[in-house]
Amino acid sequence: MNNTVTQETTTPTVEKREQRTQNRGWLQPQVNIVETKDGYALEAEMPGVSKEGLEVLLEANELTIIGRRNLPVKGVQPLYRESYDRDFRRSFELDPAIDTKKITARIENGVLTLELPKAEEIKPRKITVE
Amino acid sequence: MKLARFTRPDAWSWSGFDQLSTLRNEINRLFEGSDGNSTDAFNSWAPAMDLYEENDKLTLTVEVPGLKKEDIEISLHENTITISGERRNEKKYGEADVSREERFFGRFTRSLVLPKPVNPEGVKARCQDGLLIVTLPKSEEAKPRQIEIQPS
Question: What is the rounded CA–CA span in Å between residue A79 and residue A32?
Fold first, then answer.
């Protein structure tokens, strides 16, 4: 049985709802999201994840980021561990103003940066009077 | 030296609970830094560290996503390793509304007393996908040795 956590926010944001499936043992990466008039930028922290371990999925209006960690030391149990031995996963419901065909993703130093531009028609523009 | 690793700030942004802020001060006092300055346990960044031991070496990994090697300093004194650095919040977006800000920024310092003696000459460190990986070869006495049984 899935446990979904619904978060309502008063200001329109990229994610209106985030899902967490308790049974699968994923860790939600920390994110920073900023909104400009041209679009959104999302930064997610996924230490240990390289381009090969990264998946960005888009299904209807929902964006999911999955990061599989690349363990630096294999086959040995740590003496002392503070990190979570889990892969990263987080889902976002997208603002309909985003042009999903123009979403770009790149990962560097364990930080995923997504650029989500808003569709051209949504931006305020002047209408010239004949 | 941080005794506990801090995780999320939003759990503690309560308002109007005076008793709770006294509790918070009490807990902060427990986490006072060894140099006498009070380090607020709920507002600073302590990246996660893992320590692995193998026959010939110790490996320390620190989660520092977004940092480059220029931002990090490592020092080894006797058997204590100290890692410190700073993550700057680069304002790259100009005029923007922040919808969500969960990432930490600022300085951090972590220290760890190593459980086995290491050879400082052979210590190597590298940054990989936001993880700082420090390999510390054990000094000769610390390596496990086979003991032969003498024929009687």
Answer: 32
